[in-house]
C-alpha cells in the first residue's frame, strides 16, 4: 500500500466522544494543577489517580495547521481552517485498513531525517502522531510485548527489578482488554487466552477478515518447521516463530490512547482539563528543591508569533512527548549538552550530555511479490469505485476489508549462532534479531503501487540493531524541526541481519504451498542476485518502521550518566518526570580506543518488538510509582 494512493477523510463521522476539550489557552481555567502532562497518550493513566486537578497537554500543535477536506480519492488539504487535533472524525485514525494514511497529513508532525549513510545518503519521512492519542492514533496497531529477556535486561540495566518480565506482567494485563475479532470466527489455535487479560484499557484482537494466503502461511510452518516454527502466542514472553498478529483493534475500529485512556468515561472527569491545539515550547525552572533546580511549569503557545503562557503544576510536570518531542523540549529548556546549547544561545540549567543522544530505531525493507489472487487490498488503491464501496460497507455494517489492518502474520527469528563476529545485540537466545511482517497487498513507502496487478508484501525488519544516532536542535526555535538522525544500518552487523531477513522472505515462499499463488518477485527484489546487488537494494529501499527510542535513557538511581532514574524522574532536577519511549534503558561499557585512552560508551537498548505495548505497560507502572510518591493510592 503506497500511502499516497489511499484517501484521508475527515469530519464525516458522528462525534464519538462527549468529552469537553479546551481549544484555546485563554479558555483554560487559571489555576495551578497538581500535574501537567505534556504529550499524546501514553501517560494518561494518571487521570485515574484521583488528584484534585490534572491537566493533560495531549499535543503540541500549531493552530494554523491545515484541515483535511472530505475528498475521497486523493487527500487535499486546505489552509483556511485549523485542525482540531483529536481523533474524532478522522478516518485514518479510526478505520483499521486506513491506519497508514495519516503519514504526511495534517495529523502527522511531518518530520524528516537527516541524510543517513546506511540509506545511501537518503533522508526519509519520520512520522509521529500529531493528534490526541499521539502515535497510538496513527500507528499500524501492532501489539507485541517483547521477550521476557527484553524486560529482564531493562531490570538489570536500570537496577530496578520492578522492570522485569514477571513484575511487569500485571501492568501488561492492566493495559490489555482482549476482544473477540470482528468476524467472531473461532480463534482456537490462534492465541493463548492464559496470557491475556479481558479487563484492561486497550482493546487487542486477532484479524477480523480472512486473507487468501492464511492457509498457505500455516502450511509453510508445517513444511519448513525448523525455519518457521508455529508460535501459538508470541506475547507469552517467547516470541520466536511464526504466528497470528495481535493488534489494537476493537471490532472494526482502532483502539488507541484517545479511545481508551482518554475515552468518554475519563474525559468527563471534572478534575481533568485537556488542552489541544497548543505547543509546549519549554519547561521552566520555578525554584530549587534540596539544591536541585525545580521545574514545575510549562510555557505554551498556540502559534509561533502568539503570546507565551505559563501553566503550573503543584507536584510535577510529566513529559510524555515521545522520543522526538521530549528531548527537543528538554534541550529548548536548557537541559542537555552545554556545548551544543551554548552554540544556539540557550542558557544551560543542567549540563547533561546524554539528552538527545543514542536515538535508536528499527529499519525495514518492503519485499514485494506479484501474486495470483483477486483478494488483496490493492484494489483499494487501484479502483476508486471499489474503494468507495468498501468504505460504504464499513460505514454501514462495520465489516469487510476496511475493518482489518493491512498487516497479517508475523515472524520473529534470529541469525544463526556463530554467523556474526560482534557481540550479540539481542537480549538473549529467546529474543529475535529480525522480524518479517506479511501484508495482503502492496505495502511500501519506497515504491508506487502499479495500476494493475495483485501483490503480497513481506516486510523485513532489524529488531536488535547496533546502530545509534542522535537528536539535536537545529535552531533555538521550538517551531523548527530538530535534527533527527537515527543513523540506521550504520554497522556491518545490522546490514548482515537485514540481508539475512530478506533471504528469509525468499526462503519462506519456496514452500510448496505457495506454488500457483506466487507469480514472481517485484522488479527491484528480482534484481538482487549477489552481495553487491543486495547491498544496493538495502540502501535504496530501507526506511524506518517508526519505533524511535532512547533519547532520554533510564539508568540506575544514583548513576551519574543517563537522563532519568528508574522511576522516570529526571536526574539532577526536581518536579520533572518522563515516561515515554525516550527513556528505554541504557547499557554502559568501556571501549579501549588506544593503549592509553578508554572511552565510556552508553547505548540504549531497543526492544525486539513494536514498542506500543511496552510503553503502555511502562506508563501503567510509573503511574503507580507516582501515586505512591504522592500518597494517592
TrEMBL record:
A GO molecular-function annotation: oxidoreductase activity, acting on CH-OH group of donors
Signal sequence, renumbered to the chain: 1-19
Cofactors (names): FAD
Pfam annotation, one family: GMC_oxred_C
PROSITE patterns membership: GMC_OXRED_2
Keyword rRNA-binding tagged: no
Residues reported in the UniProt entry to bind FAD: 280, 611-612
Residues of the Glucose-methanol-choline oxidoreductase N-terminal domain: 322-336
Keywords noted in UniProt: FAD, Flavoprotein, Signal
Active site per database record: 547, 610
Source domain of life: Eukaryota
Coiled-coil ranges per UniProt: none
Family assignment from sequence similarity: Belongs to the GMC oxidoreductase family.
Protein name: Choline dehydrogenase, mitochondrial
Record organism: Mycena sanguinolenta
Amino acid at each position: 500500500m503506497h500511502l499516497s494512493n489511499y484517501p484521508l477523510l475527515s469530519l464525516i463521522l458522528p462525534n464519538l466522544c462527549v468529552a469537553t476539550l479546551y481549544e484555546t489557552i485563554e479558555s483554560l481555567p487559571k489555576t495551578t494543577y497538581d500535574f501537567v502532562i505534556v504529550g499524546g497518550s501514553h501517560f494518561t493513566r494518571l487521570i485515574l489517580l484521583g488528584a484534585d486537578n490534572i491537566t493533560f497537554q495531549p499535543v503540541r500543535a500549531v493552530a494554523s495547521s491545515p484541515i483535511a477536506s472530505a475528498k475521497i480519492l486523493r487527500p487535499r488539504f486546505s489552509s483556511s481552517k485549523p485542525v482540531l487535533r483529536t481523533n474524532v472524525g478522522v478516518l485514518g485514525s479510526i478505520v483499521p485498513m486506513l491506519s497508514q494514511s495519516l503519514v504526511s497529513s495534517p495529523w502527522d508532525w511531518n518530520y524528516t531525517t537527516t541524510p543517513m549513510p546506511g540509506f545511501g545518503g537518503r533522508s526519509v519521512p519520520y512520522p509521529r502522531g500529531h493528534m490526541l492519542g499521539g502515535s497510538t492514533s496513527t500507528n499500524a496497531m501492532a501489539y507485541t510485548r517483547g521477550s521476557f529477556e527484553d524486560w529482564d535486561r531493562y531490570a538489570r540495566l536500570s537496577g530496578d527489578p520492578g522492570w522485569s518480565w514477571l513484575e511487569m506482567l500485571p501492568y501488561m494485563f492492566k493495559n490489555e482488554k482482549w476482544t473477540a475479532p470482528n468476524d467472531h470466527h473461532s480463534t482456537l489455535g490462534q492465541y493463548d487466552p492464559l496470557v491475556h487479560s479481558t479487563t484492561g484499557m486497550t482493546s487487542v484482537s486477532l484479524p477480523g477478515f480472512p486473507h487468501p494466503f492464511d492457509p498457505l502461511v500455516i502450511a509453510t510452518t508445517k513444511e519448513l518447521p525448523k525455519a518457521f516454527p508455529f508460535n501459538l502466542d508470541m506475547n507469552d514472553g517467547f516470541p520466536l516463530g511464526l504466528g497470528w498478529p495481535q493488534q489494537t483493534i476493537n471490532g472494526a475500529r482502532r483502539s488507541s490512547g484517545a479511545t481508551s485512556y482518554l475515552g468518554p468515561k475519563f474525559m468527563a472527569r471534572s478534575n481533568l482539563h485537556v488542552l489541544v491545539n497548543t505547543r509546549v515550547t519549554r519547561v521552566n525552572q520555578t525554584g530549587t528543591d534540596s539544591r536541585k533546580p525545580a521545574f514545575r511549569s510549562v510555557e505554551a503557545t498556540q502559534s509561533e508569533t502568539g503570546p507565551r503562557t505559563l501553566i503550573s503544576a503543584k507536584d510535577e510536570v510529566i513529559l510524555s512527548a515521545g522520543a522526538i518531542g521530549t528531548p527537543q523540549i528538554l534541550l529548548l529548556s536548557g537541559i542537555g549538552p552545554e556545548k551544543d546549547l551554548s552554540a544556539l544561545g540557550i542558557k544551560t540549567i543542567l549540563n547533561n550530555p546524554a539528552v538527545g543522544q543514542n536515538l535508536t530505531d528499527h529499519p525495514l525493507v518492503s519485499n514485494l511479490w506479484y501474486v495470483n489472487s483477486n483478494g488483496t487490498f490493492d484494489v483499494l488503491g487501484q479502483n476508486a469505485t471499489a474503494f468507495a464501496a468498501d468504505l460504504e460497507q464499513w460505514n454501514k455494517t462495520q465489516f469487510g476489508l476496511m475493518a482489518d489492518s493491512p498487516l497479517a502474520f508475523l515472524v520473529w527469528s534470529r541469525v544463526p549462532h556463530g554467523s556474526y563476529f560482534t557481540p550479540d545485540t539481542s537480549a538473549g537466545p529467546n529474543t529475535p534479531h529480525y522480524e518479517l511482517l506479511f501484508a495482503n497487498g502492496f505495502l511500501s513507502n519506497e515504491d508506487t503501487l502499479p495500476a494493475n496487478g495483485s501483490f503480497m508484501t513481506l516486510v523485513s525488519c532489524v529488531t536488535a540493531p547496533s546502530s545509534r544516532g542522535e537528536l539535536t536542535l537545529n535552531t533555538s526555535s521550538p517551531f523548527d524541526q530538530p535534527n533527527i538522525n537515527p543513523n540506521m544500518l550504520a554497522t556491518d552487523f545490522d546490514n548482515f541481519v537485514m540481508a539475512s531477513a530478506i533471504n528469509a522472505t525468499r526462503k519462506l515462499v519456496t514452500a510448496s504451498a505457495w506454488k500457483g499463488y506466487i507469480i514472481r518477485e517485484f522488479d527491484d527484489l528480482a534484481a538482487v542476485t549477489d552481495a553487491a546487488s543486495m547491498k544496493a537494494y538495502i540502501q535504496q529501499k530501507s526506511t524506518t518502521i517508526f519505533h524511535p527510542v532512547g533519547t532520554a535513557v533510564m539508568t540506575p538511581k544514583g548513576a551519574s550518566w543517563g537522563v532519568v532514574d528508574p522511576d522516570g524522574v529526571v536526574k539532577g532536577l526536581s518536579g520533572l518526570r518522563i515516561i515515554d519511549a525516550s527513556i528505554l534503558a541504557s547499557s554502559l561499557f568501556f571501549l579501549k580506543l588506544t593503549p592509553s585512552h578508554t572511552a565510556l560508551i552508553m547505548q540504549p537498548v531497543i526492544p525486539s518488538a513494536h514498542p506500543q505495548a511496552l510503553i503502555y505497560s511502562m506508563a501503567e507502572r510509573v503511574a503507580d510509582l507516582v501515586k505512591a510518591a504522592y500518597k494517592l493510592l
